[in-house]
């Protein structure tokens, strides 16, 4: 009697390479954050010099007409205006995923089947966003307080 004659073996296999689409979020960032169309102003009211130009309530920061018109930043704020520029890295490659599967299926006993399967997935050149301007993480200790207001000795979260 030959192998698989009384209880046949089913072999299933597949392989594919799939190229992912670039998310619209990244394409939009490239179109909008080109350094030409938008300016951002960040003012720190605790800084004495920035506090001098900080708008007081209820005054608006900029008085621009409604609609698609150009609005000019006040001269006192020009030094605080920044732009964001987004770009793909020079070595950017379209992400791709290789997927393969193999399964062996055989009848073990009447009415029972055993399956052995393997799945392989391998991503190459995957997209990840990383902000290189972030400071290194820091550790901060928070005390745990009792109901009467005093904290537990040597207690932190």
Descriptive account of the structure:
- The chain has a three-stranded antiparallel beta sheet with strand order 1-4-5, with no helix packed on it. A two-stranded antiparallel ribbon has the order 2-3. It has a two-stranded antiparallel ribbon with strand order 6-7.
- It has two helices and seven strands.
- The protein is mainly beta and 157 residues long.
- 0% of the residues are buried.
List the helices and strands and how they pair.
Elements lengths: L8 E11 L4 H9 L7 E2 L6 H6 L27 E2 L13 E14 L2 E13 L18 E3 L5 E6 L1
Antiparallel strand pairs: 1-4, 2-3, 4-5, 6-7
Short description:
The chain has 157 residues and is mainly β. Helices cover 10% and strands 32% of the residues. It has helices at 24-32, 48-53, and strands spanning 9-19, 40-41, 81-82, 96-109, 112-124, 143-145, 151-156.
Low-pLDDT segments, ≥5 res: none
Overall structural class, as computed from helix and strand content, comes to mainly beta
The N- to C-terminal Cα distance equals: 69 Å
- Report the portion of residues in β strands: 25-35%
Number of DSSP strands?
7
Query: Helical residue percent?
Result: under 10%
What about the largest sheet? 3 strands, antiparallel
Average the pLDDT over all residues and give the rounded result.
78
Note the overall shape.
elongated
Strand arrangement, largest sheet? 1-4-5
Question: What radius of gyration results from the CA coordinates?
Answer: 31 Å
Number of H/I helices: 2
- How are helices and strands ordered from N to C? EHEHEEEEE
